């Protein structure tokens, strides 16, 4: 705590978005994803939800990304490790 992570993430987000890059936040828990959103203003969700969004037709927790198309806009993923 107090090391400047939130400030760094806010500034990185602004720099990336100014270059047309989408910044996406992910975390293992919903609470951590909410913290990324509220503290760094980065749209976030759980990693599980994001993976399900990429592969919505595969069985639960059995993802197949072979049909996922390359992102039209570059992306940077911010992942909370806790």
Give the topology, please:
Layout lengths: L4 H14 L3 E6 L2 H11 L3 E3 H8 L20 E6 L2
Parallel strand pairs: 1-2, 1-3
Features:
82 residues; alpha/beta; three-stranded parallel beta sheet; 3 helices; flat; TrwC relaxase; P-loop_NTPase
Question: What Rg, in angstroms, do the CA atoms define?
Answer: 14 Å
H/E element order: HEHEHE
- Global shape: flat
Proportion of strand residues: 15-25%
Brief sketch in words of this structure:
The chain has three helices and three strands, in the order αβαβαβ.
Structure description:
- With 82 residues, this protein is of the alpha/beta class.
- The chain is built from three helices and three strands, in the order αβαβαβ.
- It has a three-stranded parallel β-sheet.
- InterPro entries: P-loop_NTPase (IPR027417).
- It comes from human gut metagenome.
């Amino acid at each position: 705590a107090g090391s400047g992570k939130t400030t760094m993430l806010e500034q990185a987000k602004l720099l990336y978005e100014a270059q047309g890059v989408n910044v996406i936040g992910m975390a293992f828990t919903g609470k951590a994803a909410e913290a990324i959103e509220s503290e760094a203003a980065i749209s976030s969700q759980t990693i599980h939800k994001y993976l399900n969004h990429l592969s919505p037709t595969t069985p639960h927790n059995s993802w197949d990304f072979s049909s996922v198309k390359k992102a039209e806009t570059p992306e940077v993923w911010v992942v909370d490790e806790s």
